[in-house]
Amino acid sequence: MSKLKCEKGSILGPWGHQWPDDASPEPKIGFLQGILQWLDYHIKKINDDYKNRESFSIFKLKPNIDELHSILKERKGNWIHFNSLPFYPNEHFQRNHLLIDKNQEINQKTIKYYLSFQSLTTEIISNDSLPRKISFLSPQETGLASGNSLGWGNIQSPDHSIDQREDDGRSLCFDSLPLDENYELFGFPTVKLNLSSNTNYGLICVRFSMIDEKTFTFNSYFTWNP
């Protein structure tokens, strides 16, 4: 959307593959009313109050620490709004040789970790006693606790992630030390890996989870089928 020169707008909510006035989980919004306001302002040239509305609205999710169920009626979070689309450098731009628009970058604080043997460290650790290569083959059912990648927005559908300890037992895990301050995370996590395989095909899934006192909460994931 950053390349579009016409009038544009976007609403990203917690819903599945369904209209946001009828989808689950909540909060629902008056989608038809929003479309009517858009058309009144941009087509009929009325409803001047609409010009003060931000172009992009995103529902920033909060971890459902106390509601780790595959069926959820409501997601916790809050709406954030932008007049210009934030830009987050990621592998997609580098891989496709797309130009990066520096004017769209936002001030952001990044947290960088390095993979060590079964741990995440804030600095590169050089230790000859640790293995430089880790071999791993996860079972086929790994990822069942992560929920559906494209939920249908039906209150009866078990679309959402559950306690991640089940999948952690099938995965190669790297843990950081406890964070010494609270963070509000928003954006796109990235990971760089050096990999090799003894077969022509493979599937890589990277999960990003939060460890709480009682639960392991699923935050984000990425899959790649090279």
What does this protein look like?
- This protein has 226 residues and is mainly β.
- It is built from 3 helices and 7 strands, in the order E-H-E-E-H-E-E-H-E-E.
- The strands form 3 sheets. Strands 1-2-3 form a 3-stranded mixed β-sheet, with no helix packed on it. A two-stranded antiparallel ribbon has the order 4-5. It has a two-stranded antiparallel sheet with strand order 6-7.
- A hairpin with a 2-residue loop joins strand 4 (114-116) and strand 5.
- Uncertain ranges: none
Distance between the termini: 27 Å
Largest sheet, spatial ordering of strands: 1-2-3
| Average of the residue pLDDT scores | 78
Strand content: 15-25%
Total strand segments: 7
- SS-derived structural category: mainly beta
Provide keyphrases for this structure.
9% helix, 226 residues, dipeptidyl-peptidase activity, three-stranded mixed β-sheet, two-stranded antiparallel ribbon, mainly beta
SSE blueprint and pairings:
Elements: E1 10-12, H1 31-42, E2 56-61, E3 77-82, H2 91-95, E4 114-116, E5 119-121, H3 165-168, E6 204-211, E7 216-224
Parallel strand pairs: 1-2
Antiparallel strand pairs: 2-3, 4-5, 6-7
Question: What is the structure about, briefly put?
Answer:
Helix content is 9%, strand content 17%. The protein contains 3 helices and 7 strands. The strands form 3 sheets. Strands 1-2-3 form a 3-stranded mixed beta sheet, with no helix packed on it. The protein has a two-stranded antiparallel ribbon with strand order 4-5.
